[in-house]
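ok so dumb question maybe but i'm new to this and my supervisor (M.) told me to 'just get the structure for Glycosyl transferase family 1' and walked off. so i did the thing. is this what she meant?? sequence i used:
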Amino acid sequence: MLDVVDVGKRSLATYRGIAPGEILDELHHLSEDLRGARCMHLSSTPYGGGVSEILRSLIPLYNDLGLATDWKLIHGDDTFFQVTKRIHNGLQGAPGELTESEKATYLANAQLNAHRLVTDSENYDFIFVHDPQPAVLAALSPHLDARWIWRCHIDTSHPNPSFWDFLSPYLHAYDAAIFTMREFIPPRLPIQDVRLYPPAIDPLSPKNHSLPEPLARDVLEWIGIRTHRPLVTQVSRFDRWKDPLGVIRAYQRVRPHVPDLQLALAGSLAMDDPEGWEVYEELRDATAGDSLIHILTNLVGVGNIEVNALQSVSDVVVQKSLREGFGLVVSETLWKGTPVVGGRAGGIPMQLPEGTGGVLVDTVEECAEAMLHLLRRPDEAHLLGERGHAHVREHFLMPRMLRDHLRLLKHLASVRPLPPRGIVPVSFNPAQLQKGA
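this is what came out, is it supposed to look like this??
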C-alpha cells in the first residue's frame, strides 16, 4: 500500500474576501459535474518543498468541492532518492549521465511502487503525478483506467539529453501535462495535451497567515535573530540551483556599507533530497565564525511560523536562483508586503514584473547592488512590496490554481466520460460560495 498523507479539512468559503470573488464563484460551477469523482495526487515526500506545501492546502479544497481526493507517497530507499535527485538536476540541464546501475535502481523502485499503486488505486478517475520521481508510473500501470496528468514543477527547458532520453519514453501514457511556463516544455514531449498553469500559495496556511508584528519579532528573537538590526533572508531548499553561496557573497559585499546587517539562510532538509545535506555542510563551512549569518533548518525547529516571521520582518528577501520552476517563496514574501531581490530564472520574473515586488538580477554583483539599494530606500522598498501583494492576490493564490485544475479535469472528462458514481458525502454547501455569502 502507498502511504496516505492526512491533510485535514478546509473550506473554500474561508477565502471569501481574500481571493478574487469571481474565481470562487467559478469554482462552484466547475465542480458541479465533477462531484463524486475520485482523484489522487502522487508525490515523493510529505514535507520539505513546494510540491508538498501546495498539496497540503490543495487536497482539502478538492474534497470540500465534492471530489474525493487523496494524497499518496511513493516509497524508495536512499539509493533511489539519490538517483531521482540526479534525474531532477539532469532535467534542469546539469551535466553527466545515468549509469546502467542507476537506471536499474530507478526502474526497480518504480516497479515496486506501480505494484503498490495497483493494489489500492483501481477506482481513481484522475491521477496527478508530481515531478520526475514517480513519473514512469503511468506507463507501468496501463490497466488502471484513470486519466493521468503529469505535473512537472521544474525548469525542463534545456534538459540534459542523456536524462531526458531515458525518461521521456515513459511519458506517452499521460493524458495531459502541466508546466509552469511555455518555455519549460521540453523537446519531443510525448504528451499532446499540455497546459500552462503556474503554482500558487495558500494565504491561509500557517506560513502565510498574518502575524502580529510583536509576535513575529518575538519568534525571530527566539531563534537568534536580533530584530533591532537590519535583516536579509533567503528561504529555500539547500540546493545549488538556489545559489546560496552566491547569496553569501552578495551579502559580504553589502556588509561593509551596513555593518550590523544580518543574513538568514533558512531551508528544509527533505527525505527525497540527499544532496541537501551536502549543501548544508558547505554553507556551515562557508559561514563559520560569522555571528551575523544564521543557518536555520527544520531540524532545529524552524518551521512555517518561523519562516512567516522571517519573510514578514526582513528588510529584503533574496531568491537568487540559477534555475527555478516557480519559486513559491517569492509570492509568499510579496504576500507579506516585503520586497524581493530575485534571480532572473524560471518563474521568478512572472512574479516580479517591472516596478512590482522587487528587483530582478543576474549576477552576485547585481544582487548586492539591489540589496543595498532597497536597504537604503525603505520607502521605495515598501511601495514595491505593496504592489507585489496586489499582484499575488490577482494571480498566485490557491483558489486560482484549483480553478485551473478543475478546468483540465472537466476537459478530460468530456473526452472520456466518467463512470457513474454515487455522490461522495461531503460537508460542502454550494450556497457558501455564492456571491455575497
